[in-house]
Please model this.
Amino acid sequence: MAEEYLDIRGRRRNLLRLARINLTSFLHLFFYRIVILFSIIAAAIIIASMVSGGQFLDILAYASIAIVWLLVTPQLFGTFKVLPIVLTNGEAMGRLNSSFLKFKESVMPTSPAYKSILAAFPYMAIIVWIALLALLLAMLAVAL
Amino acid sequence: MTNRIWVFMTYGSIVGIPAMASLFVLAHYLFPGIAYVFEALLALALITNFITGMREIYIVSKPIPDKLVVEPVSHVPAEATQRGQGKAVNIVISRFNPDRGIIEKKEYSVAADKYTSVLSALIKVKNYQDNTLSIRYSCGMGICGSCGMNVNGRPSLACETNLLKSAENGKVEVSPMLAHPVMKDLVTNFDDFFEKHKAVSPHIYKEDAGEKYGHGGISRQSREDLVKFLPFSYCIMCGLCLDACPVENTNPNFAGPQALSQVYRYAEDSRDGKGEKRIEMVNSKDGIWGCEFAGACSEVCPKGVDPASAIQLLKAKKIGQMLDPNYCQGEKSGADGI
Ligand code: SF4
Ligand code: FES
Model:
């Protein structure tokens, strides 16, 4: 690349550009970056609590699992979104061209109920996920 | 093989963390005696996640070039400002000055009516206020893909973006796309982008002797065949998806959403003879597995190509191949790509 060009690709802080483009995407990426670093701390605390078994470490382990739980939520939602996309070739939860979707309906109609159920799946899965977090927090409260 | 292991570890940990965390909590209430097994597996998934994640973070980390110095806004007074009818809108343009090696912000004022696009406002600025402004455009109607830039920080086609609707407090910010090297003002260099596109062989491969000499008949395609790839063929190569993509912004070696969506487009075309080699071309860390599914590419695509979905569909196809005991790895020989 000729020297006189401005090429700022490759900087980690470019991730911040995403916040203005799409906040959900930004949170997805940003939380995942944090969970990468937090993973090792959480893993160390869990292992220590399993080995030593002290109450303080147990509480710390539950708390770190709860933090990981929250941080992976956007990532998990993205993963759940893949299922409807793959099963409907991008029709459910995708962002395909709207005139194409009309054309596709005339050629190969897909049941709206099927699409709605698939589109609802990631949200339902996240509700279950949050309910389980509530259980974890109950465990934490008991431990405290 | 190494690639497979990394893919397995990365995706295994992403799925493993929530799965083991959930099982741990459930087991704690239902089968307390075995809860510790899931706790240990959760710790293992977290360690794997840390290793694979750090590897991803390590891929590229460039120092910030000192070229990116943004100069304060300098107001450019213009007698021609109010030429024509309409409301005055101030356009703040981030202009890259290659001689000084910095980005300078300049503010211009133009008259806009409800039909004025950002592109027509920029052309007005160039024609009547500052003919040193560099912009690239051709069709003016969202077909050629030349006028990509950031409008209020969002990658957009200038010709398809309404000026008044974009104005916030009478002001619109325009800047060059930053996931392409900037040449001057708002004009970016697309060499890398076109190279990546070319690298995925974006054309139909066909043993067409039969068709040519009349023995095999013509390649008929049903409407059912057509819908499999049609939306992915709408790409106008504007490069907005790359500019929005966080992976492309942080790792320039990533194939990028545009090229990957074209892999899916041709892989799904019933006339294409390249078959599984297409997916093999991008079965790598800088290919489909580099995508973190942020989805920003599909958000900004002006044509509804939905590159993010195309990449997930490619991943699903690849996983299907990996799980298929009859899949022959030898198929991949001869595949070029990323
Ligand atoms: S996929 Fe969409 S955003 Fe990307 S180059 Fe093609 S038309 Fe532009
Ligand atoms: S000028 Fe052709 S797409 Fe904007």
Summary: Chain A has a mean pLDDT of 90. Residues 24 and 74 of chain A are 8 Å apart (CA to CA). Residues 17-143 of chain A form one domain.
